[in-house]
Amino acid sequence: MMGNRVYNFNAGPSAMPLPVLEEIQQEFLDFNHTGMSIVEISHRSDAYQKMQDETIALLHKLLNIPDEYGITFMQGGGSMQFLMHGANFLKHRGGYINTGVWSKKAKEGAAFYGDVYDVATSEGEGFRRIPGPEEFDLLPDTDYVYLTSNNTIHGTQWQAFPHIDLPLICDMSSDFLSRPVDVKNFDFIYAGIQKNVGPAGAVIGIAKHSYLETARQDLPIMLQYKTFFDHDSTYNTPPVFCIYFVNKVLHWLDERGGLKETERINKEKAAFVYDAIDASDGFYRPHAAKDSRSLMNITFNLVTPELEKEFVSRAAEEKLIGLKGHRSIGGCRASTYNAVTKEACERLADFMHRFRKVH
Ligand SMILES: *Cc1c(COP(=O)(O)O)cnc(C)c1O
Hints:
Elements (H helix, E strand, L loop, with lengths): L6 E2 L9 H9 L19 H18 L5 E6 L2 H13 L3 E6 L2 H10 L4 E7 L20 E7 L1 E2 L4 E2 L10 E4 L16 E5 L10 E6 H4 L12 H6 L9 H16 L2 H21 L6 E2 L10 E5 L3 H13 L2 E2 L10 E4 L6 H17 L1
Parallel strand pairs: 1-13, 3-4, 3-5, 5-8, 8-9
Antiparallel strand pairs: 2-10, 6-7, 9-10, 11-12, 12-14
Helix pairs in contact: 1-7, 2-7, 3-4, 8-10
The chain binds pyridoxal-5'-phosphate.
Pyridoxal-5'-phosphate binds next to helix 3.
């Protein structure tokens, strides 16, 4: 590990692959022999276009995205999508599988454009689990069903996605490219990149072309998904540096063996931490139900908030950073995104064992 870099378990923005950071640093002054930085060249130049085309091709390859889907880059973060998906696709009624803070916010964002309701929710149980299909309650005139693939704050994740006879919209912000996904099961996917694939400032959208055709068009241009997809992300200046960064991360993922291999590594990594929790005789109390556990965000409590505070500060003394839970639910959280190394997770597990013994 380089110099004073730490073991970073931040929830977002979060750890990025070190080889990617180094490569970007190296070519920051001269992008692809242009004699200019990537942030200094025109988004209408050939050099830029080539890079963006390659990024999109790599996304198609890694996620196995069929040709009937388009890909675009947008700004405004995940939160802008809470509004935009509703603006484009909510005509009568939007159904939400409410699994936590982010799906709730999406529902509230879309409510500006029509009726919204919970198809299912685990709110009564502190969002500890992902509801099963037998719990779904669909109302007539539902335009789409919306879900959040990984609940960053509560530490739950869909293990298998439901098949529903309606358009399916998914927020994959916090587990995008962490595992293979059957894109064909969805009509619209979006992911803010700052959790797993780049710096804050861009959202990747993946849409089925035929579904895009159904979007409302009586909207301001910058609220219409079609504007971004039809203009190949360059209706206006795209988030150039973000896209370039994603390009590097995609190469890194591809070179290490793609999403299957990435999922295998992520499982191995998360197991270190979950095993430390499960072997602790109740010292560490997992927030998520076992069958809903996230491979990306591992949430747990200690007996008292004071002990949690001490856990976080002692961990920081060993360069294990970012373990405080989200302000809305407290407790502790270890985010083990793609770029978090196996070594980091082993160190955390080892620290957890030692901390328990001392207390
Ligand atoms: C972080 C996060 C968001 C919010 O993203 P912003 O870019 O901060 O608006 C939305 N959804 C999920 C699942 C997230 O993890």
